[in-house]
Amino acid sequence: MTLLLIDSASLWYRAYYGMPDTLLSPDGEPINAVKGFIDMTSRLVSHYRPNRMALCLDGDWRPSWRVDLFPEYKANRVDDDGDEEAEPDLLTPQIPIITDFFEAAGIPLIGVDDYEADDVIATLAYQEKSPTRIVTGDRDLFQLVDDKRDVAVAYLAKGISNHDLVNIKWISQKYDIPGERYALFAMIRGDASDGLPGIKGIGEKGAAAIAKSFASMNDVIDAALSEDESLHPTHRKKILADMQYAKIAEKLVTCALDVRLPKVDLKIPSGPSDRSYLESMKKDYGLGASVDRLMAALQW
Questions:
Q1: pTM over 0.90
Q2: Domains identified in the chain, total number
Q3: Residue-number span of the structural domain to which 222 is assigned
Q4: Residue 82 pLDDT exceeds 60
Q5: CA 279/CA 137 separation, integer angstroms
Q6: Do 79 and 145 fall into the same domain?
Q7: 14 with 49, same domain?
Q8: CB within 8 A of 13, min separation 6: which ones?
Q9: Which strand ranges, in their side-by-side order, compose the sheet holding 164-166?
Q10: 55 and 107 Cβ atoms separated by less than 8 Å
Q11: What is the CATH number of the domain that holds 192?
């Protein structure tokens, strides 16, 4: 009994960049991301043997409530017109093909307005009572790792073949912190890819030192205000100077665990919802072996 949760955007970007854009359909359309996404999903299903799974999507890539907290959130990805930086031209038309394919396969796709895929994944993992494997190339989701509840992250930074299964021990060894405190570490360190500065002047080593001594941002703030000797004077000074950010960091960085999700049966069906449509897609887009491998992995 295992639930597989896929960070879909993370996977299709990796599929797109990992497969040559010379892969074309019979009509000459690019299908490298489509084939790559299906192939990667097949390998993940074969490896983890889930009985339930979902593809998780961004309802909004900059949720209003996060932007209200911190207007600079992901502002580094916004173009001059206020829109998200464009996806690669050859990727954009492939995304509807991927979602249509998995909808026809009967695999749930879940996205919720004003929430990111990370929040959907977090809520599903939080509600789950069985082992959960989260597939992503995003370190943000390390905060969900929980050995007691058997929640681990299949981290794709090294690709599918060499991916790491991230548990508490892995985080501890990688960042030299208590593994369950990754969220606090990330709040302090920041994340340039999301436009999050962290606490100004405190880098990864300083964030790790603080995470070793304190369990939450509230504890860190209290220590700074009370001149707790467990907090290095330099770190105390920088936290006090950046108190406004420190007070919003937890809500900003922590994945939401209370997203109102649609009622969806996550059980992998015994066969595709629309086999004839899958077969037509297989022919129209030249997906032959990729579709066959997925159906074999799903035991269809």
A1: yes
A2: 2
A3: 179-253
A4: no
A5: 30
A6: yes
A7: yes
A8: 91, 137
A9: 109-110, 52-56, 3-7, 132-136, 151-155, 164-166
A10: yes
A11: 1.10.150.20
